[in-house]
TrEMBL record:
<protein>
    <submittedName>
        <fullName>EAL domain-containing protein</fullName>
    </submittedName>
</protein>
<dbReference type="InterPro" id="IPR050706">
    <property type="entry name" value="Cyclic-di-GMP_PDE-like"/>
</dbReference>
<dbReference type="Pfam" id="PF00563">
    <property type="entry name" value="EAL"/>
</dbReference>
<dbReference type="InterPro" id="IPR001633">
    <property type="entry name" value="EAL_dom"/>
</dbReference>
<feature type="domain" description="EAL">
    <location>
        <begin position="96"/>
        <end position="342"/>
    </location>
</feature>
<dbReference type="InterPro" id="IPR035919">
    <property type="entry name" value="EAL_sf"/>
</dbReference>
Amino acid sequence: MILSIDCQWCGTSVSLPSSGYMTVRTTNKYQNWEQSIQLPISQQGESFLMYQFHSHHELLHNLQILLEHNMHQEWVHFSDTKQDQSVPLQIEHLYERLSHPELVTIIEEGHFTSYLQPIVHMDTGEVYGYEALLRSRDGSVSPGELFSFAKRAGLHSMLDQKAREEAVKAKAELIPYGQKCFINFLPSTIYVPEHCLSHTFNIVKKYNVDPSDLIFEVVETEKIHSIDHLHNIFSTYKASGMHVALDDVGSGYSTLEVLSLLKPDFVKIDRDYIQDCQKDQSKQSFLESVQQTASELNITLLAEGIETTEEYQWLRESGIHLGQGYFIGKPSPQPIESFILP
């Protein structure tokens, strides 16, 4: 049996034999570590150790021993002979993939789909567009669990890329021309925007989607460490005729101070500021400051997480442009037919 393991950077398939050799690259900090780790060594060099394994179960056991000695970040190669070597993988990533092959299959083979949650004009109730949200086809795993595993297994770049493709496909098949599609992306998976986003741009052309109907939305923004890098990503999207959005303004990384630096086309207001906004003066003051900044920078505001009539009515009267939330419509496989204003 040969198990397919994907390269953590670009998704290139790597064949992992059912038996063979595992080569561990070592560094100075692990001098004499082979003496404390009770694994039989097949071959040893100045900066590597080679171990033989006879099954994936044995390989998983060996990896667990290495992890117990804090070898999480070290790199390993595989081969069915002592000469050939595979693309390198980190020990912790390989351990996760061998431990959960069913999740690897979902990601590799794209066993997921996009659910659509409506976004409406607050003043008229007319549908503006939809946010495409990842769902496994059989419902066996939640999106949060799938992305959490993908990160632990070094597959988050592949999952993010394939999720974007599924969202573009949903736009082409289900969302009419002129209505927008908000598509999430992880900035941490985009190392060189011009290269890493080329796959997405090719998918947009493949499905003949109008780039101006696509809005790429940053998620996990609190973990972004470089405004310059995010600005470069935004610029790459915009240069291809697409729009960009910042999520959760008011929390994490998306503070009002960075809006003028990044100049997104859209800003989503964090749910914490939407809940019971009609009766909370501090939230109302914050929303007013966001509106002022957005007006100065020509940014469209979107209130997410609207769950009550009272929230919707206050936000509409305050001049918020767009709205999203369970009160308007839950994520579903098909677009909603209409939304009736309260």
